[in-house]
User: Fold Pyridoxal phosphate homeostasis protein from Leadbettera azotonutricia.
Amino acid sequence: MDDTAKGVAQGIARIEERIAAACLRSGRKREEVLLMGVSKFHPIEKVEEAWKAGLRLFGENRVQEGIEKFSGFYGKGVDTKIHLIGSLQTNKARTAAFFFDCIQSVDRISLIEKLGEICVERDSPLDVLLEYHTGEESKMGFSGLDNLLKGAEKSLSYKGLNLRGLMTMAPFTDDEKIIRASFTRLREARDTLEKQFHKKLPCLSMGMSGDFELAIEEGSTLVRIGTAIFGERPK
Ligand SMILES: *Cc1c(COP(=O)(O)O)cnc(C)c1O
Assistant:
């Protein structure tokens, strides 16, 4: 193995240990938490190393970069999944809807309408998460529970969309209380939506390299890890 391969495999092994410990601490099963490798800005070689080390779920921020990197990748081998986690412009919605396995960053009604219209053409519904603004600093996502409820209602009205849960980014701060509160808010919003719409929303996508353990303690079912697996992103 060269250094890159060792680095990526070791990064995954270390993250796995920390995920297992966080699950143990919070009385959760390891299988309840999916590990996503966020490969944005990193080359395909690193993705291949991660795949060899057993990783099967990847996240990309940009439509074009995701397609360029992954379209030839193991023919997207049966169990390999790629999610879009960065903001999606409406004019790229069609391309994204036919490439990604899930769009986690659905953040406005107009995008839901666009995706809903496009996805009637898909063989199976497109998995989507609604991004919820749970912290003070980040500007992404639906803001306020009322708007989130409207987004969920809209998503559920389209046969081509399969609403699976919620995504958030906690504020960038060292203050654990603030980060944890952000994750708690996402979980509670999910619980509210489940009650309101009598629909299970099993996916809570929260936690990144700097805060995934707190996220797991607060109920995360999918952690999105970039730097701690692939290293610093090249600028
Ligand atoms: C870049 C990114 C990540 C990964 O961030 P790291 O801190 O490198 O782990 C996770 N989620 C989203 C939405 C991102 O844009």
Notes: The pocket of pyridoxal-5'-phosphate is lined by residues 38, 40, 61, 85-86, 169, 208-210, 224-228 (CB under 6 Å).
